[in-house]
Write a structure and sequence with these properties.
Elements (H helix, E strand, L loop, with lengths): L7 H16 L4 H8 L3 H8 L7 H10 L5 H11 E5 H7 L2 H15 L2 E6 L10 H8 L12 H14 L9 E7 L1 H4 L5 H13 L6 E6 L13 E4 L3 E5 L3 E5 L2 H17 L3 H17 L1
Parallel strand pairs: 2-3, 3-4
Antiparallel strand pairs: 1-7, 2-5, 5-6, 6-7
Helix pairs in contact: 1-5, 2-3, 6-7, 7-9, 8-9, 11-13
Length: about 280
């Protein structure tokens, strides 16, 4: 189960649950017995590795013979956490700290699913495409990052792509065909990016789906998002990101990804779309 170091409200909830259990004088094993849960589940909740449902919180408070109101309020605050890029750079040791957070999430997750409507996802980006994207007017330089930070992010993204070759990892990516056609970078960078995507065909860990223009898109695609192990959703905006831990929210995004993946083409059909985009780029 992945963790995010800057989810302050989530960790505050986990600490409050642990403090409530400790106030009973019961060790974790006996408190888990009182709940009828395995001790491992209790440990995950107390360390923030698993986000509790509302029923979990009520059961926890009942087992501790206290009013659940405080925990429920903390849970509501932790259910959705938003941080601007500027804030995350400030409290997370800059760009390097943010990249470390993402890298840890990916390292801790066996299943990563990602959707992007109009750009190529970081998991398959080339260094040149990433560099030009990051130097755009809405990129990190506008959040207070430096040129050195941008180069650090590019290097970190390239390093993180090693997960594509790790056994036991499953990375499922879906993009709209618009991501192959939208010019966010130079012609040279986009050409290299499309070639890179072709080179990844057949990689066992990677599933690449493309929703063609001709297909009805089943989900209103305002923002890209990534789901880690069916436990955490990160939704990116231009100015920051939402982190959603509530099981219902995570389930909903998982279902949306499933609908997008079902609408997408894969394998040879996806390759044909990429080759078509390359041909159109060369002729433009």
């Amino acid at each position: 189960m992945p963790q995010v170091t800057h989810q302050r409200a989530r960790m505050e909830l986990a600490r409050a649950m642990r403090a409530m259990r400790e106030s009973t004088g019961l060790p974790g094993t006996r408190f888990a017995d009182r709940l009828g849960w395995p001790q491992s589940r209790l440990s995950k909740l107390e360390t923030g590795r698993q986000f509790p449902s509302e029923d979990d919180v009520r059961a926890w408070a009942q087992a501790a013979s206290v009013d659940p109101a405080e925990l429920l309020a903390l849970r509501e605050r932790a259910r959705e956490e938003y941080g601007t890029w500027r804030e995350q750079y400030r409290i997370g040791k800059g760009a390097a700290g943010k990249q470390a957070d993402i890298g840890q999430l990916e390292a801790d997750s066996s299943l990563i699913v990602k959707f992007q409507p109009v750009m190529i996802p970081s998991q398959v980006q080339t260094a040149q495409y990433a560099r030009e994207l990051l130097r755009s007017p809405s990129g990190p330089l506008s959040w207070g990052a430096t040129d050195a930070d941008v180069e650090g992010i590019v290097g970190a993204r390239m390093h993180r792509q090693q997960i594509l070759y790790e056994p036991g990892k499953t990375i499922r990516v879906v993009i709209l065909e618009a991501a192959l056609q939208t010019r966010l970078t130079s012609r040279e960078a986009m050409t290299g990016q499309l070639d890179r995507m072709l080179s990844l065909e057949g990689l066992p860990s990677l599933s690449l789906g493309i929703v063609p223009f001709r297909v009805l898109v089943p989900v209103y695609p305002l923002s890209g998002f990534v789901v880690f192990d069916d436990q955490l959703v990160v939704v990116e905006t231009v100015n920051g990101e939402h982190q959603l831990s509530d099981p219902d929210d995570v389930k909903r995004y998982g279902e949306w990804f499933g609908a997008l993946d079902a609408a997408a083409v894969h394998g040879r059909e996806a390759t044909e779309l990429i080759r078509g985009a390359l041909a159109a780029l060369a002729a433009a």
